[in-house]
Write a structure and sequence with these properties.
Length: about 400
Amino acid sequence: MAGLFENPFRTAPGSDPPALVGRDPELAIARFAVGMTHSAAPTAPVIITGLRGMGKTVVLRRAMADARANQAIVVYAEATRREPFGAILRSGLQAAQESIGSLPDKLKRAIEKVIRVLPKPEYELPDRAGAIALSGAGEPDQKPFMTVLRELNTQAWKHGRYLVFAIDEIQEAQINDLSPLVRFIHETAGTAQPALIVGAGLPNSRDHLHQAHTYTERWRYLEIGLLTPDQTREAIVKPIRDAGQVISHHGLDALVAESAGYPFFIQEYASAAWMQHEGKTITSADVAAILPGVRRILETSLYDSRFRALTPRECAYILALADIGPGPRTVYEVADRLGSDSKRVSSIRNQLVKKDVLFVPSGGMVEFRIPLSDRYVQAHRTELERRAAAKPSTSIDVRRESLPPQDGKAAH
Ligand SMILES: Nc1ncnc2c1ncn2[C@@H]1O[C@H](COP(=O)(O)OP(=O)(O)O)[C@@H](O)[C@H]1O
Ligand SMILES: [Mg+2]
């Protein structure tokens, strides 16, 4: 087996892949927005959208590196529902302050002032006091968030710097907390001292941001999806070649087919094939040896737990969606395929959204939450059709008895 430390592939979420293929347009647009902000020219925030594992965080991190190399003070915040966004922003400001070694005192103090008006993370406070909305945060004698942010922005520009807020999982940020930040960015746009947001999130990010303010409609939303077969080939071959190894044609074809352009799968399959090989060449036998195991692991962690607890009507719904084909579809198309109307099947759809199988990327649309779910549905078609045809009352008992215990939710 090849040594673990030589393995060039990166399977952890957000890890920089050895070859970042197919994202040049998005990287260029983000770099352009940063460059425009740096030269105080008008530009719009950029939000990278896509389903889990498509490589949004990777693009965001590259944009952050560009911004840092361009004199920006980058404030990174990964939104989560478990923590008020204001508290996450506070940690981001603290990290920015610590990571920039030699900041002028005035600028340091301006950052500290913003930090002080933001709520502390809940784990630092008793009584969940961190859960104060950003707009109402702080002690009575403190200036409002917007005021200290404006002061920080002015100080930054005075010292040849500017602010870039890099927000990951932006669809998770509470609207109350996001709104003042969005307003601030809008206020600075078109002035001589602009600040920028570069974000990443699920495809519903646009609708989510729209709730914070309507002018977020004018932001740039860049959806990233599956890579083409040629791009997938490059994402696998280049790192292998760069490491002085080779892969057989058949082995490569099999990896390209199996990973189907899904960046997360590309890293998983290529990493396993790498670990399997001995000597200089990854052979088709190496690839054949790892495929069933990796496929099983990925099915278990991503799909099985979501798809196993479906009612017959829900099974019928996802079969219809998979048959129409990949990508977002209108709710009417699916209802049509089921020989029904969208109102009558809306409760099934809502249940599937609750069960994390489906996702509403924007109003009136529906899509599988996890990429390549349609392929999973086709591979398990016979069983799903059998379950779709079962009578609801009996099928539930039978299914409960025959199923293994539920896993926790997958990381991706
Ligand atoms: N363009 C790409 N080519 C190859 N692998 C990629 C690419 N983009 C991302 N990856 C890999 O895919 C996985 C998921 O990336 P990540 O940025 O965490 O996705 P997301 O943030 O969309 O969930 C990581 O292992 C990453 O290294
Ligand atoms: Mg991510």
